[in-house]
Amino acid sequence: MRIGELSRRTGVHAHQLRYYEAQGLLEADRGPNGYREYGEDAVLRVKQIRHLLGAGLSSEDIAYLLPCATGEAPDLIGCPELLAAMRSRLERLNEQLARLAQSRDALADYIDAAERIGGEHYPPLTMPA
């Protein structure tokens, strides 16, 4: 099927379908006339992509998840690609949380020290947001 038909069947604009293709989320062959030609499985793939985008995942995340996706919802099977990618993402999030906790603690220490030194003797400052 051509891009217009895929767009009609999925409710997704053609420019979004081209974006999915550019991101490696969707594959199309080229016909002799140069037009994109999608297989019947593209309808399900686009529905999976839409559901995963709706869950707040990035196209990069979705690229990792799609090999492990089944069904329209989709269900994610714990295949090695998925598990490795999600473990890596979890590790990065934990590192970010640790850095944020250190920053929070340091800022709290500065506030405590400033209050002990007698911040009431100075005019109030306007802090940038």
From TrEMBL:
What UniProt keywords are attached to this protein's entry? Coiled coil, DNA-binding, Repressor, Transcription, Transcription regulation
For the keyword DNA-binding, the answer is yes
Q: Which InterPro entries match?
A: DNA-bd_dom_put_sf, MerR-type_HTH_dom, MerR_fam
PROSITE patterns named among the record's database cross-references: HTH_MERR_1 (PS00552), HTH_MERR_2 (PS50937)
| Lineage: superkingdom | Bacteria
Residues forming the HTH merR-type domain are 1-68
**What sections of the sequence does the record tag as coiled-coil?**
83-110
Instruction: Please list the GO terms describing molecular function.
Output: DNA binding
What the entry lists under PANTHER family is as follows: MERR-FAMILY TRANSCRIPTIONAL REGULATOR, REDOX-CYCLING DRUG-SENSING TRANSCRIPTIONAL ACTIVATOR SOXR
Query: Per its record, how is this protein called by name?
Result: DNA-binding transcriptional MerR regulator
Q: Which organism is the protein's source?
A: Amycolatopsis magusensis
